[in-house]
């Protein structure tokens, strides 16, 4: 995620600097930029360059500034407002699909504040369908139905949620059980059914909202001779940063110099995940601004890195890192996800 923190006073600037320092050490954060004053010009020129804006100022300033800039709940970045006394973090814009509710809880935890969340499903202790999509990296195919689904959930109506086998882990999610009537099926995507008729051409009304999983790949690097337990521990530890289970992964990837590592091979086999091998030439020709080069890897293998580029390459064109490389006892993990 890319964060922008903006302030207007000296006190706010101090808070912004402290917050940025903590966020830069978070493996799920790719970039943090801090701005001071010039709120209108800064937001106008850079509003869509970041996933989340954190404004340390009066709420009214941000409301008046972002009104001409917002386009759609499907694309607008998250916007938070932090009070200068550090008592409250307000989720102002894009609470669900943009992740503002999630980020407000995250930032509040960093500074010891109270998150202020006003979306109806959350106030009822339910999980909106767009929040489900955000948390588990799902592409919403019929976004015009989001409002209708969430209204039913807020009104205490349990809509039917069809889960493929690999998403059975969601059956243990307490908020999902409070919000949906769980069904299982053999398709590869999730579906919310609002009295769905599979034959709308015969007079029915197609009221289905489909959620297609974005491709998620864990890129792996390692020391020689790592064990199965080491690899499992590393991947699970990495996924904990994203609050995701192992089952959410679509594939593992590594470089050809690691193709014979028994620990990696066995983990892929036991997890029923494909292990996708990339040549050093493929990695050497790949560039992405989010990749962090390693002098050690460069010296040993002639490429700037392994885990980050292989994850991004195998996740697909225009994919993004959602967890930068993190080392766990001899195993390095990075996680990337496709754009759609």
What does this structure look like?
- By secondary structure, the protein is α/β, with parallel strands linked by helices.
- It has helices at 10-23, 39-46, 59-66, 100-111, 120-123, 129-135, 146-154, 174-179, 228-242, 262-271, 280-284, 295-301, 307-315; strands spanning 2-7, 31-36, 52-56, 78-82, 88-93, 114-116, 138-140, 159-163, 180-184, 190-193, 208-213, 216-222, 251-255, 275-278, 320-328, 331-337.
- The chain has a six-stranded mixed β-sheet with strand order 2-1-3-4-5-6, sandwiched between helices.
- Helix 9 (228-242) crosses helix 10 (262-271).
- It is globular.
- The model is unreliable at 197-204 (pLDDT under 50).
In short:
By secondary structure, the protein is of the alpha/beta class. 34% of the residues lie in helices and 25% in strands.
Q: Which labels suit this protein?
A:
single chain, 340 residues, six-stranded mixed sheet, five-stranded mixed sheet
Secondary structure blueprint with pairings:
Blueprint: E1 2-7, H1 10-23, E2 31-36, H2 39-46, E3 52-56, H3 59-66, E4 78-82, E5 88-93, H4 100-111, E6 114-116, H5 120-123, H6 129-135, E7 138-140, H7 146-154, E8 159-163, H8 174-179, E9 180-184, E10 190-193, E11 208-213, E12 216-222, H9 228-242, E13 251-255, H10 262-271, E14 275-278, H11 280-284, H12 295-301, H13 307-315, E15 320-328, E16 331-337
Parallel strand pairs: 1-2, 1-3, 3-4, 5-6, 8-9, 12-13, 13-14
Antiparallel strand pairs: 4-5, 7-11, 8-10, 10-11, 12-16, 15-16
Helix pairs in contact: 9-10
